[in-house]
Amino acid sequence: MKIVSLKPRSSLITELRSDTLWGLIITAIARIYPEAVVQEIIESYAGDHPFFQVSSAFPFRPSDQGGKTYLFPKPLFHTNIDLKSCTGKQEGLEKLQHMKAFKHIRYVSKKVFQQVLGGTLTDNDIFEKAKNNPEGFSFNGIKELTVQHNTIDRRTWTTLEVNEKGQLYTSREQFFRQEYGLFFLVRGAKLNYVDSALRLLQHTGFGGGISVGKGLFDVEVEDFSIREPETADRVITLSLYSPTADELSGFGAAKEHMSYDLEFRKGSIGRNLSPRHEKDGVLMFREGSVLPSLSRERYGRLIKVRSRGGDLGHDIFHNGISFHLNLRTPVL
Question: Three-class SS of residue 241?
Fold first, then answer.
């Protein structure tokens, strides 16, 4: 397994979720390698050993000892805080306030996340840790701002005017503090293709606004390991995930081990691939979702969201392959 650190050189417009990152990598590979290589990569996802899998991007911050503290998604356990044990109204109110703040916590440190994987921490334990040390669970290294832009008339290189009015638009952009950035995990037997794609993306940029210098990162790739339990009854996904029909059937037999959020993903094909085409929407499990273990290597599927035809010379796929880790249910 490798960890890819993205050290920002600009602001970022596009949220780098696993489906987006995979699409960027595949597109970069298609610009470097022959079409037959891309087809071979796509076909590998039909088997148990895809050429590579990617997680979503999560933040890192500088650690007190130097280096980086990697932050992982807070597991989406069902929080079950006991209010009946409160000795009075004030204590109950304080606990409710802590619960409200706890819901907004998005990340936990690698140390806490590893304890969760091993089954030594419950959601209530994480709640107590966050209540007693809120600074340890806060993250303020990225600021999101709405930035206003002018639409440029490419014939005159002045502000485009329609009906004698300038054309303004806004975008949401992420700005990073010094020494803060993003990381994602990647694993598989053919990571040489990912290395080539990342070298290209380091120069061209990640996501939207690259023509005006957005999404620029210095890329650093290192070996990475995280302890997973040898015996596990659940998995936690570090990516967006679209299950197959038989996986859904398997989950239905162990509903008590499921705790998750769903998200509907929809968008358009990147302009560097073709004229604008809308992709079919996909309903997916979100990062941090905890699901029953089906004791398999690969979870999820590629979904064809647009078929070739007209001015689109190839099929378009959406990545629903799960980047998951084994998790043991705590013994209460």
Answer: strand
